[in-house]
Amino acid sequence: MLLKILLPLMTATVLITADYVRPPPRKTLHFPLDHKSSSHPQQVHISLAGNKHIRVSWITSDSSSPSLVEYGTSPGKYNFKGHGDATSYSYLLYSSGSIHHTVIGPLEHNTVYYYRCGGQGPEQSFKTPPTEFPITFAVAGDLGQTGWTKSTLDHIKLCEYDVHLLPGDLSYADYIQSGWDTFGELVQPLASARPWMVTQGNHEKENIPFFKDGFESYNARWKMPYEESGSTSNLYYSFEVAGAHVVMLGSYTDYDENSDQYNWLKADLSTLDRKKTPWLLALFHVPWYNSNTAHQGEGDKMMEAMEPLLHAAGVDIIFAGHVHAYERTKRVYNGKSDPCGVVHVTIGDGGNKEGLAHKYKDPSPEWSVFREASFGHGELKIVNSTHAFWSWHRNDDDEPVRSDEVWITSLISSGCDPKDNKEAREVLWSP
Questions:
Q1: How many domains are contained in the chain?
Q2: Looking at beta carbons, which pairs linking 83-90 to residues 24 or more positions away fall under 8 Å?
Q3: Which of 86, 102, 127 is the last residue of a domain?
Q4: Kind of enzyme, top EC level (predicted)?
Q5: 3-state DSSP call for residue 256?
Q6: Which of 80, 111, 127 is the last residue of a domain?
Q7: Model pLDDT for residues 240-285, shown as the tens digit of each residue
Q8: Are residues 118 and 135 in the same domain?
């Protein structure tokens, strides 16, 4: 019955530009000095690491602390152990602690595990995602470390989600490396309990010409399953969970037709089994379809290079950040509405210190459906192989107010199978 009531939303075409009056952004959070022992695990977070495996990451100030994770399905009973490795980095006058990464598994799906890092410290727990529908993703980008960030995280905690997707701009440390440490502490309660899958944004660059390459802090701290997906860079990778194949791309690394990222993406998409993964999602930082006046045109070159590939593969939804506001489009391709195109969602509204992007283009493009300059988060519940329910929750009232929602039908079930499309075959499967 619920499906019958909400199905008309899938074809809604009326543009909504909300007139909600946003309060100003809140101040950056302040964190007390940490007096824990040098071997105490801090900034714990987890990520998916291939089929039935989880990567546990944490930091200790003691370089001799072991990269050991003990875990089991009962509190205080650790029947299994995983051993990993540790790295560290220096940045100007800053020296990181030991950054530990340990892959554990194989794990049972949809199961709560209890674990301990480094042989000591408090017991943590996480829940593995399911291997079949339904599955729920929480989505929020451009987080930062403000009071609004905390509101966003508090609201995400209320959502019964399985995996968090973050399309770039995590800590807003912006060269001040201690900002990465405070961000790690801020997100630990959520990031240690559910997998966080992230990609980089412009605030992760932190490059200093002739002295420091970009993304050193990001790559050291937030290791993603790039090797498991055949990628050679932590800046782009893919993973599969339940019936979804998710592609995480880099807006700030080479993406033209001669680049490693482009060639990897083409190879990744050309081998998909859409019976196994009927849903195809993509994330990157800079939006391609954006009617906000902020960051206009910044994604055009990447779109020119990669949009044909993603369209040919039948991507259902693209999530982007960068613009500090929310916007959802119709299915669109090559600048126009297209029933076999992609739904683009800009969700760079996690709560960062730079505030909101208030101004939109007027008149709006015909492909824009809903737009609002507010902080918030999104939830994507993929119900089955044909239908998913997307909702966006404004948090400016300190309550997660559902402001936008729509049922989305998968392209594969809508007669848009790329293998039936000659143009798609030429783009995706040509030499």
A1: 2
A2: 84/56, 87/220, 88/63, 88/220, 89/216, 89/217, 89/220
A3: 127
A4: hydrolase
A5: coil
A6: 127
A7: 999 999 999 999 999 999 999 999 999 999 999 999 999 999 999 9
A8: no
Looking at the fold, whether 49 and 190 belong to one and the same domain comes out as: no
> Which amino acid is present at 80?
F
Token pair of 369 as six digits: 């459906």
- Pairing assessment for the beta strands 368-372 and 16-17 based on DSSP bridges: parallel
Residue by residue, DSSP assigns 58-78 as EEES-TTS--EEEEESBTTB-
DSSP string, 205-230: ---BTTTB-TTHHHHHHS--STTTTT
Active site residues: 295
Instruction: Please report how many Cα atoms fall inside a 13 Å half-sphere around the Cα of residue 154, on the Cβ side.
Output: 17
Query: Is the same domain home to 72 and 169?
Result: no
Give the range with max mean pLDDT: 1-15, 119-133, 396-410. 119-133
Q: Comparing C-alpha atoms, which of 101, 98, 94 is closest to residue 38?
A: 98
How many residues belong to the chain?
Answer: 431
Three-state SS for 394?
A: strand
**φ, ψ dihedrals at 189, nearest 5°:** -55, -35
- The domain in which residue 177 lies consists of 131-429
- Does residue 309 sit in helix, strand or coil? helix
Q: Alpha-carbon distance 207 to 215, whole Å?
A: 7
Residues 291 and 384 in one domain: yes
pTM of structure: 0.92
Inter-axis angle of helices 178-191 and 147-158, to 10 degrees? 20
State the CATH number of the domain containing residue 219: 3.60.21.10
In a shared domain, residues 104 and 149: no
The answer to whether position 11 is within a domain reads no
Q: Determine which helix (DSSP H) or strand (DSSP E) holds 266, and give its type and residue range.
A: helix 260-270
Return d(Cα 13, Cα 379) in angstroms, integer: 21
What CA–CA distance (Å, rounded) separates 123 from 369?
45
